[in-house]
Amino acid sequence: MERRLPPKRASDSPVRSRQTRLPDAAEPVLEVEALSMDIHGVPVVRDVSFDVRAGEVFGLVGQSGSGKSLTALAVMRLAPGGAVTRGRVLLSGTDLTALSERRMCQTRGRDIGMIFQEPMTALNPLRSIGDQVAETLRVHGVASRSEALCVAREKLARVGLPQERFGLDRYPHELSGGQRQRVCIAMAIALRPRLLIADEPTTALDVTNQAEILKLLSDLAADEGMALVLITHDLAVVAGMASRVAVMHEGRVIDVDDTETLFCEASHPYTRDLLRDSLHQPSRRSGSGGTPVLEARNVIRDYAIRRRSLFGARRIHRAVDGVSLTIRQGESVGLVGESGCGKSTLARAVLGLDAMQDGMIQVDGVPVNLVRARMQAVFQDPYGSFNPRQRVGRLIAEPFHLTPLTKPVRHARVIEALEAVGLSAEDVDRYIHEFSGGQRQRIAIARAIVVRPRLVVLDEAVSALDVSIRARILDLLTDLQQRFRLSYLFISHDLEVVRSITDRVLVMHSGRIVEEGVTDRVLSAPEHPRTQELIAAAPRIPEEWLRAGIKAGKPDSDTP
Amino acid sequence: MKVPAQLWFGAALSSAFVVAALVSLVWTPYPVDELSIDQRMRLPGDGYVLGTDQFGRDMLSMLMVGARTSIAVAIVAVGIGMAFGVPLGLLAAANRGKPVDEIVMRTNDLVFAFPSLVIAILITAVFGPSAFNAILAIGIFNIPVFARVTRGGALSLWTLDFVLSARVAGKSRLRISLEHILANITNLLIVQGTIQFSLGILAEAGLSYVGLGAQPPTPSWGRMLAESQTLVSLAPHIAAFPGLAIVLTVLGLNLMGDGLRDILDPRLRSTR
Amino acid sequence: MIGYAFFRLVSLCASLAAASIVIFGVIEVIPGDPAAFMLGVSATDDAVAALRAELGLEGGVTARYFSWVGGMLVGDFGTSYTYRVPVSELVLARLQVSLPLTLYALALSTAVAIPVGLAAAARRGGTADYGIMAATQLGIAVPNFWFAMLLVLVFSIGLGWFGAGGFPGWEAGFWTGVKALTLPAVALALPQASILARIMRSSLLEVLGQDYMRTARAKGLSGRQAVVSHGLRNALIPVMTILGLQFSFLLAGAIIIENVFFLPGLGRLIFQGIIQRDLIVVESVVMLLVFAVIMVTYLVDLTYAAIDPRLRRSI
């Protein structure tokens, strides 16, 4: 296939100019001009324009509902039913919006590849991975079946799934999320398209997988001279990847610039807010040195795994392997690690939800299952955390189960908790569907503090929230901790969040705690190799950009 | 909330039959237990709205009393199915993967291997035919249906965080099943109940048609059809009206079920 | 795959054993003395004892159960008390009507339902879709035996295209036999085809919303190509489940429909058995029906595994 442009590494580009001053060297592969989309009459994308050059990584960032994914679908002309699109989309000068559906089919997969967010469901479960990658070539009629399989093998090897370990006859269910995303990438690049659109490609993956997939994508873009549009909600991801960034808000592109300029100058107020919120550090006092609240000694938790065959031996997976930890009053302890390292299992054991195989867990010196009300939890999903059939008052009162308090006392405490999290007393009679995601997480926190527990376990409690809401929730948590002398066990995959709210941090790997210490020390000078990997994998916005950006952000008085 | 037209239509149709059945308890146009041979096989309109049958009984009255039999059998059978199936389903879901779950589900599969007709045959062979046996046969068949629906709905709820929160509060599995799970599968059960109700009416008709259901002199739609079979060319109306009654009742219930599903749980797609 | 088939085979045998215990319990244990039950209250003690000896009903419950099961394994279902011939002979003769009827109806239902369901899904929200949905709604509500009566009224009595009932036997020629079974099969197939068409439609619509369909479009497949190469096979999985269930409904339905058409099938045999209190016949036929249902479930499970690689892991 002919390539009009030599591969060019985006990061080598010295260009640092406004979009209006396009570099002459690279002509645009994709030009989006005044693109708008309505779904059933509701405007979701409004007058969006940007362009992407060959070999460039272009970041499209925004919070949920900002229209960034729909913009990509509009480019692909795969918008959902009821959508009406206006404006022009030029791919190397050809207006895609004017193509017939047949021509558009020939363009998709051949000239534009696309990767989606959910690798677990993006592949057909009934067909082998080789078959699915080969299909990209087969459907465009460029290869025979055996040639296509040959290319599939080569592409799968290119994305890190070599033939020896990942045969073409493997099925999606035999692969992990990260591996499946690699298959999707292989499918998208099989015909070396000019443009690759990656829509939140790593959001469903953990940090180590995320780092690998992002590296793979940027290498591919560079090697093949592809233009890459990277859609994400995570500013740190674009900071490390993109040469230019467009920020979307409420369907509009409100800021577009070179990545470094965008971060350092932070000229648009919305960009500045976004940046500040994503790095938000609640002002908090260190809370170590109190009496121990939670003590866990040598906790072991095993799971039985499915037998490999009918007569196979029973196998056991040790999810938590001899973990000990202590949390003192008023202290925040972070627990980090990749997915599957056992941190959620440990949390469940601490909460007394699962029986342990060995070890002991005590709260104030008493076994955990005897003093349930001294420990509460906030979980990740603000939508699945509440029984939709109960009113807020009853939802918050749930932890009073097994406590001897009278009804009026309970009611007063519920009101108090609601007000403590910034909601009002009238909300007790409302149902949960009337609240937004951020408000729901506040209600979850109210439920956790209503019994005045000693310890609150926060299991990925802010992970599903947009950055601006996340920042407010972190402030709230800090405030409540100081008011009620709470201890937190804060489980998160997000190291920035852990840094902002914890005193100490534990790093977990394969069921064991491999490193622990004061948060700043562990995150800035990690000792254990696993911790080092974890920190290296986490995307970060460069320090100097931040300093510049925050300086530019003045005179916002509320910046710490 | 927008109520779909099919729900109105279905509800109107099925309540018409329920009302007819209830009215028949206190009044019918003609008595159904008196035979008058000189009035037999009158055509519709000829002094009788829907004509008379081969024994001179008023068809409309027969249909009204027949509705009573059909609806009573189907409702009680749904009741049996729910009374046993729902607790079993909740129990299985609360103990997912444990021996209790396995036992409940395997027993379920076993009962599923006996279509309601086969259960009715077994019961009738030993106890003789009766409306009660028809209820029992359809009811037993309904148990695994409700157990399965309940377990399926409950399992997806057990994975949600609000159940975890309830467990953090120290609530037992039983309490969680009753307080959180049951309340959230009521919609599912209402919809399935409507479906089983309509299937029950069809099954009752089939059973009484082959003589395994309500026995003479209790009028029932299925037996009216069986008795009319040899006369179908002479007096088609005798065969037409009971059949139409079954079709309209079942249609009404199904439309109502689909309509309820649409407004109560948009996530559930039409699966029938 | 072989491991899976084996595992399912074990559970198949367990189901059959459990079903046989239930049937044996209801027929031979609940009535107390089956021989006395069969002869009625007026029978003398001598006659009951004679019948008991004749039917092999002497001995304990456990011994009788095992001799019944053991007999069935070698094709000996006992002797009919009313017909005075081996039950296996009776059943074999009747199966030649019931089994072809069931399969005929199953084939008809599938052949009609799948294209109709696909057509409705393809025209979702259109007039054709509404028309098909309304027709299937009606089809589900019609009792098959009443529909059978209407068919007889129109096609036999009215048009004279088919006989009103009876079965000439396969000796009279294959097509003659098929013709005699056509109206019953159509009557049986209509409600099942309606259900199946609705399942096919909703299952395909569900699959169309899946992420992998969008992936396929992003690769450059047209909407139609995506449906054919990714949608259909996934959409057929729920359809398979219903097909398996339908077999048992069709089998039961066949028993009823045989009454409308005076077909000498298992249905007639079993109802005569009930009326004449011939428990041995009832027991054998019920066991046979349940065996068929369990076997079909097994085959459906194996087909699943063939379609869906996720199930091929040994257990």
What are the secondary-structure elements of chain B, in order, as H or E? HHHHHHHHH
**What would you call the quaternary organization?**
heterotrimer
* N-C termini distance of chain C: 9 Å
| Structural class by sheet pairing and helices of chain B | mainly alpha
Q: Biggest β-sheet of chain B, characterized?
A: none
Number of helices of chain B: 9
- Low-confidence sequence ranges of chain B: 266-272
The class by helix and strand makeup of chain C works out as mainly alpha
Count of β-strands of chain B: 0
Spell out the helices and strands of chain C N to C. Answer: HHHHHHHHHHHH
Morphology call of chain B? elongated
Biggest β-sheet of chain C: count, sense, barrel? Answer: none
Please tell me the overall pLDDT of chain B.
Answer: 84
- Rounded to the nearest angstrom, the radius of gyration of chain B is 22 Å
The value of Rg of chain C in angstroms is: 24 Å
- Kindly estimate the percentage of residues of chain B that lie in beta strands according to DSSP: under 5%
Description:
The complex is a heterotrimer of chains A (about 550), B (about 270) and C (about 325). By secondary structure, chain A is an alpha/beta fold. Helix content of chain A is about 35%, strand content about 25%. Chain A contains 18 helices and 20 strands. In chain A, β4 and β5 form a beta hairpin. In chain A, α4 packs across α5 and α12 (about 405-420) crosses α13. Chain A is globular. The model of chain B is unreliable at about 265-270 (pLDDT under 50). With about 270 residues, chain B is mostly helical. With about 325 residues, chain C is an all-alpha fold. Helix content of chain C is about 80%, strand content about 0%. Chain C has helices at about 1-30, 35-40, 45-55, 60-75, 85-120, 125-140, 145-160, 175-210, 210-220, 225-260, 265-275, 280-305. The longest helix of chain C is centred in the C-terminal third of the chain and has 39 residues, at about 225-260. The radius of gyration of chain C is 24 Å and the shape is globular. Chains in contact: A-B, A-C, B-C. The interface of A and B includes residues 353, 398 and 401 of A.
